[in-house]
Amino acid sequence: MLAPPRADPTEQVLQSRGGDDGQSGRHVKDVAMTVLLAVVMLATLAVLGWVLVYVAAQGLKYLGPTFFTQNPPGNPSQAGGGFENGIIGSLIIVGMATLFSVPIGVAAAVAIIEYGGRFAAATGFVADVLVGLPSIVIGAFVYVLWVTRFGFSGVAGSIALAIIMLPLIVRATAEMLRLVPVALREAAASLGISRARTIVSVVLPSARAGITTGVMLAVARAMGETAPLLLTALGNQLFVVTNPTKPISTLSLEIFNNAITGFQAAQARAWAGALTLILIVLILFVAARLIGWRLAVTRS
Amino acid sequence: MASPAAVSDLPTDHLRGRVGYADRLFKATMFAAAGIVLLVLLCTAAFLIDQGWPALRHYGFFSFLTSSRWAPSDATPKGTHPNPYGILQFAYGTAVTSLIGMVIALPVAVAVALFITEVAPAWMRRPLSYAVDLLAAIPSVVYGFWGIFALLPALHPIVNFLISTLGRIPGVGAVFAGPFFGVSYFAAGLVLAIMVLPIVTAIFREVFATTPIDEKEAARALGLTRWEMLRTALLPRSRSGIVGAGILGLGRAFGETIAVTMVIGNSVLAITTSIFGQGATMSSVIANEFTEAVEPFHLQSLFVVAFWLLVITFVVNVAGRLVVRRTRAGLA
User: Fold this and answer.
1) Weakest mean pLDDT among A79-93, A208-222, B11-25, B318-332
2) What average pLDDT score do residues B192-217 get?
């Protein structure tokens, strides 16, 4: 890495700061910038704290054991009730989305990293672009793909979430496969083991912890998605639905629908739901990081 | 995803002779899965344009982009002029909210990433990065809900001050004009800033970490202070990475839906000049009206919005990825 052809900025700094009075000025500036960076860091943490504490304070006012065993009342202005329907719905829809997306995502990553080639490289790039695709656009796509033929349903919702999770899983898996030493693959090949057998029995198991981390982060993301579900799972039911071919409500949809009603009782439920959702996401997030951290420790 | 060829050409491949049937089947399956990833993107584009087609043909391709009035109740099965489904105000809303978000998020993200990678003591780095990543883990609907009840009331005194100062300036004052009811472009931009911050910070951390330690040590050995070292050795070579991360953050902000829908006010009839006024974005109008679209060509027009949103975010993401990827390749 050579210095850029334009005037060397290092030199400019040195020349412009001649003399002893310049010295103290430079150090004052250094301290000032360090303090500024620290203040911005603290402000960022303060925003995080503000969101978490506010949601916790509001949510704890209403959250109780019955929140998980009752459904919302028929009249949203009425107090009481819980989000059992949404919580069970979320588990069903996200569970199905995970079942759809993990095998496809891992297999696509295997094609990208283990086999390679132009087609695989294109897939890698498209996966990168898919990550940035708005989830509402994916919802509209699944609406055309599924809802126009079979109606609003849990299946449609889980397809939408699977498409959102897919590129996340492809990227996480590809990253992990790249870390598996080539020597392992060569060792397997030298024993006369086929490429397929090597991938299934040697490469994927040694990348397992990292793939699990990636899947958990993708699940956490899917848990909180709301916009695509408005167009697919719909979820206006006030009772528990377990049939995935019917519209199913989710935790995120219940939060959204109750939050925008304008009734205090409904907002109280929505806060308790928001706290529940944040806790679920945080548990997934921390667990994923712990696995990732242990992985990093064993590697070093 | 750079150079996958490293693993794909094992030196032993030619020694193995005949590749078994199961092996080929396995490979074909893996590539079929990769094909699904490609297919999703192609089908999304094709399906959206297919659904929007009747409206596009009825009103004309460009009539959507030249009007800023969205009035589904004016639509009739026959009438074609004027197009009641103008989408310019949504494009404007998406651009303004995302710009506000990026203007706030980018400098903050640079500072946070610099603090984590260069200033913080080693033991603090991992917990700090996790804390910032946590901002990305909080769901959109929670940000929207928090925005309505915690952020908007806190904004009132600040914004009223800005309206009475900046709003008085002739000319640009219109951009900061009142009245302020809470829900606004500005509120949506602030929420977007918080949501985009962790994503951009993560890329910055990666970019900053690629600065060779020799160059940083050389800068310090010349007697430069830490800030001078960051300014001369680290930031100049990270410039294209910063640009790429900014573009990717912008792409993210463009597509954000639920949180924006909850705090932007959803006014669809015209462009509101003031950033403290109410509006709508391309994604918020889809989320708001999709399941209630009953007027002629209403749903089809929403698909036109979705198609343009897809096109814009696709272009922005491809550009951002290319810049970031080139940075990485150049540094490797």
Assistant:
1) B11-25
2) 90
Chain B contact for A4, CB < 8 A? yes
| Exposure string over B299-325, b if 16+ CB within 10 A, otherwise e | bbbbbbbbbbbbebbbebbbbbbebbe
Residue type, A47: V
Question: Model-level pTM?
Answer: 0.89
Any A CB within 8 A of B105 CB: no
Determine the 3-state secondary structure of B265 from DSSP.
strand
What distance separates the 2 farthest-apart alpha carbons in chain B? 81
Token output for A176: 């992990």
pLDDT for A152-188, tens place per residue?
999 999 999 999 999 999 999 999 999 999 999 999 9
* Each residue's pLDDT tens digit, A252-288: 999 999 998 889 999 999 999 999 999 999 999 889 8
Burial class (CB in 10 A: 0-12, 13-18, 19+), A240: middle
The tens digit of pLDDT for each residue in A122-146 reads: 998 899 889 889 999 999 999 999 9
> The domain spanning residue B191 has which CATH number?
1.10.3720.10
State the pLDDT at residue B174. Answer: 82
Residues of chain A neighbouring B112 (CB-CB closer than 8 A): 37, 40-41, 44
**Interface with A, mutate which of B25, B43, B140, B142 (most A CBs under 10 A):** B142
**Do the chains contact at B237 and A1, CB–CB below 8 Å?**
yes
Question: What domains appear along chain A, each with residue ranges and CATH number?
Answer: 87-253 (1.10.3720.10)
Residues of chain A numbered 120-179 and touching chain B (CB < 8 Å):
120-138, 140-141, 143-145, 163, 166-167, 170-171, 174, 177-178
Residue B163 near residue B181, CB atoms below 8 Å: no
> Has residue B24 been placed in a domain?
no
Using CA coordinates, name the residue in chain A closest to B216.
A10
Is B54 part of a structural domain of the chain?
no
- The CB density around residue A46, as the number of other CB atoms within 10 Å, is 10
* Domain around B152: 91-284
Is residue B307 domain-resident? no
Query: How close, in Å, is residue B77 to chain A by CA atoms?
Result: 21
pLDDT in tens, A229-246: 999 998 877 888 888 899
Total number of domains in chain B: 1
ipTM of the complex: 0.88
